[in-house]
TrEMBL record:
Protein's recorded name: Pyridoxal phosphate homeostasis protein
Keyword terms, alphabetized: Pyridoxal phosphate
Naturally occurring in which organism (per UniProt): Trichoplusia ni (Cabbage looper)
Co-factor(s): pyridoxal 5'-phosphate
UniProt gene name: LOC113494698
Entry-annotated residues carrying N6-(pyridoxal phosphate)lysine: K44
Keyword Transferase assigned: no
Keyword match rRNA-binding: no
Upper taxonomic lineage: Eukaryota, Metazoa, Ecdysozoa, Arthropoda, Hexapoda
């Protein structure tokens, strides 16, 4: 298909990542919940043809960080025809004025980036207009573990409050876990990535405070450069883009 034209072997990239994920799972501490990690293939700025190629190779979960892009790809004729069981994850910054566009996208599977109580409230309010069969919308709460201004997400200390809000006041949402982006290019020779450790600690605390089963609270952390490390520390969802689909242009604006 389009791999010749784009010079990326998506199938091979996918296979390599899955092999590395499996190896990382075997190194994971046995004290951690043994949840099989889910690979979210991050397809931002990549064409529908490459997504269809990955789908054909067996991949089902895909992530996008811009609402417009997810909404367009979700209704792309190729995707609708060839990828009927695709599961879209929204992993970017969600603005209130884009909520309806996002929720109206076919095969939206999860919003990983709930970054405030207000956003949770709004998603909860709008979702009944779009859902099928009374299903709840799966969500994760995004934590800004690196305290960087440019990144969205709540402070680690607010985790219990925001998750509690989702559980108590948002009956149309299903709380699935915690997500972080963290610092880029952290040097792991210095030890475990502190962002990942913080997310693990947030889960521990929120489970204790709200009496949640830790085996049912997921952690979304880890990207191309550090997904194996993230799995070793307990990631249950890794979001991998460039290793599968090829590098993005150096000037690609990466905000979330
Ligand atoms: C782009 C992106 C990724 C994937 O990044 P790669 O380095 O290409 O693997 C993961 N998570 C988020 C939130 C992203 O925006």
């Amino acid at each position: 298909m389009s791999s010749a034209e784009t010079q990326v072997d998506v199938m091979l990239g996918l296979k390599n990542v899955l092999t590395k994920i499996e190896a990382a799972v075997s190194r994971r501490s046995k004290d951690l919940p043994q949840i099989a990690p889910r690979l979210v293939a991050v397809s931002k700025i990549k064409p529908a043809a490459l997504i269809a190629e990955a789908y054909e190779a067996g991949q089902r979960h895909f992530g996008e960080n811009y609402v417009n892009e997810l909404a367009e790809k979700a209704v792309d004729p190729l995707i609708l025809e060839k990828c009927k069981d695709i599961k879209w994850h929204f992993i970017g910054h969600l603005q209130t004025n884009k909520i309806n566009k996002l929720l109206g996208s076919p095969n939206l599977f999860m919003v990983e980036t709930v970054h405030s109580e207000k956003l949770a409230t709004n998603l909860n309010k709008q979702w009944p207009k779009y859902r099928k069969n009374e299903e709840k919308l799966p969500v994760m709460v995004q934590i800004n573990t690196s305290a960087e201004e440019a990144k969205s997400g709540i402070e680690p200390s607010e985790t219990t409050k925001v998750v509690g809000h989702v559980l108590e006041n948002c009956p149309n949402l299903e709380f699935k876990g915690l997500m972080t982006i963290g610092q880029y290019d952290y040097d792991t020779t210095k030890g475990p990535n502190p962002d990942f450790l913080t997310l693990v600690k947030c889960r521990q605390e929120v489970c204790e405070n709200l009496k949640l089963d830790i085996n049912e609270v997921e952690l979304s952390m880890g990207m191309s450069t550090d997904f194996e490390h993230a799995i070793e520390l307990g990631a249950t969802t890794v979001r991998v883009g460039s290793t599968i689909f090829g590098a993005r242009p150096a000037n690609y604006k990466h905000v979330a």
